[in-house]
UniProtKB/TrEMBL annotation, chain A:
It comes from the Bacteria. This is Alkylhydroperoxidase. Residues 58-140 form the Carboxymuconolactone decarboxylase-like domain. It holds the Pfam family CMD. It comes from Bradyrhizobium centrolobii. The keyword Oxidoreductase applies. InterPro entries: AhpD-like, AhpD_Avi7169, AhpD_core, CMD-like, Uncharacterised_peroxidase-rel.
TrEMBL record, chain B:
SUPFAM superfamilies: AhpD-like. InterPro entries: AhpD-like (IPR029032), CHP04029_CMD-like (IPR023982). It comes from Bradyrhizobium centrolobii. It comes from the Bacteria. This is CMD domain protein.
């Protein structure tokens, strides 16, 4: 994206839909080969500037995308989708990724029907009181995002007291950890725009 | 079934254990976290980001998270791929270690949450040993690990100016970001495993 494009960066966390513009050149759509489409996984992602930038390394993008989809979309068992999205939103709020937080706060609201609580996470930050179960998920996500990693036995115990079994705890670990990957790409390769 | 899954190995998850069974329920994620690792460390094309540079950045990134089995793993990898760099990277880890995430939000109501911290730069007298490209990569990696919200378009220009291509920048960013994921999954699973008693305990398999 050239410097001539107008960027109107958001200054607050929001559940609104945001755009994203790259700071270095994505591949032009016309130059994508079958190797690139394999990396994109969904052909429709060729419309996204973000994915056309990441597809410069198609093998990594393909593996990353398939990791992402299973962690969040495979709800045959384990943690409800809403709480996986909560882990993603809390991680993004703590790391400071306004774009990622907007997407996953929206998903958390959609799947939980608790839009006001999700908005309080965005407005008040990671200390917002969202009830025992959500507080445990948020605190575990934040402890995992810290460097050095602060996640410990206390987080496991708190998640268990809130009713999560071991498989559900693994879904929290996977979802929160994955957003430490996603946040760093979104924050460093471009910026959100309203 | 995967062979020598790197996350399972580093987290101490034994075949047949209860965590092994739980991990098997997310087989696609498990398999593709492994494929991500292979695509980053055994790429089909390393022309934009060499194997030794990848191992050096990996030791630096995992070292910034504190010593762990993950750090030891990437230290051994760098010893194999670029042994002459190990000492310099260890010295830079010691200079760069701090607590994160910190950094600034876009100017506005969130500015009250801004948190100042170390702006890491490679030691001037170590730059000749590391080279311009790797020195720039370490500075960028530190930014991504500890203060990702500070990242700006100027940081892309710094990498381009140090000789990184657009494709190399994407691979470097993926490597740092992937390791930020991997080190956390391993830490989380180790903690959970320890809470179950012995991580290798197979008695409670699902």
């Amino acid at each position: 994206m050239s410097a001539a494009n107008t960027v109107n960066p958001p200054v607050l966390f929001t559940q609104d839909e945001l755009g994203w513009v790259a700071w270095i050149d994505p591949l032009p759509e016309a130059e994508l080969t079958e190797r690139h489409f394999a990396g994109l996984v969904d052909r429709s992602r060729a419309k996204s500037e973000y994915f056309r930038l990441l597809v410069r390394d198609p093998e990594v993008l393909e593996a990353r995308t398939k990791t992402d989809k299973d962690i969040f979309y495979n709800t045959a068992d384990g943690l409800p989708r809403a709480e996986r999205e909560l882990a993603a939103a809390a991680t993004s709020r703590y790391n400071g990724c306004i774009y990622c937080a907007s997407v996953h706060a929206r998903f958390a609201s959609t799947y939980s029907k608790r839009r006001d609580d999700v908005q309080r996470l965005l407005d008040e930050g990671i200390g917002a009181d969202l009830g025992e179960r959500w507080n445990a998920v948020v605190r575990a996500s934040v402890a995992l995002a810290a460097t050095p990693i602060a996640f410990g036995e206390d987080n496991i115990n708190e998640l268990r007291r809130a009713g999560l079994d071991d498989a559900e705890i693994v879904d929290v670990i996977n979802g929160a950890s994955f957003f430490n990957w996603a946040n760093r790409l979104m924050l460093s390769l471009g910026e959100p725009t309203k | 079934m995967s062979t020598t899954d790197i996350i399972d190995t580093l987290a101490g998850i034994e075949p047949g254990s209860s965590l092994d069974a739980i991990r098997a329920r997310r087989a696609q994620a498990r398999e593709n976290a492994q494929k991500s690792y292979l695509a980053l460390f055994e790429p089909i094309d390393a022309s934009d980001f060499s194997i030794a540079e990848r191992a050096a950045v990996a030791l630096f990134v995992t070292g910034l998270h504190g010593e762990s089995p993950v750090t030891a793993f990437y230290r051994a990898k760098l010893a194999a791929e670029g042994a002459s760099l190990v000492e310099a990277i260890e010295a830079e880890i010691a200079r760069g270690e701090t607590s994160g995430p910190y950094g600034a939000f876009p100017a506005g109501p969130l500015s009250m949450e801004n948190k100042a911290g170390l702006i890491y730069r490679v030691a001037a007298d170590r730059k000749p040993a590391l080279g311009t490209r790797l020195a720039a990569a370490l500075e960028h990696a530190h930014l991504l690990v500890l203060r990702p919200r500070d990242a700006a378009s100027a940081d892309m220009k710094a990498l381009l100016g140090a000789g990184w291509s657009n494709t190399g920048i994407v691979a470097l960013s993926q490597l740092v970001a992937f390791l930020s994921f991997q080190v956390r999954v391993v830490a989380g699973l180790r903690t959970l495993g320890a809470s179950l008693g012995r991580p290798a305990n197979a008695a409670a398999s699902a």
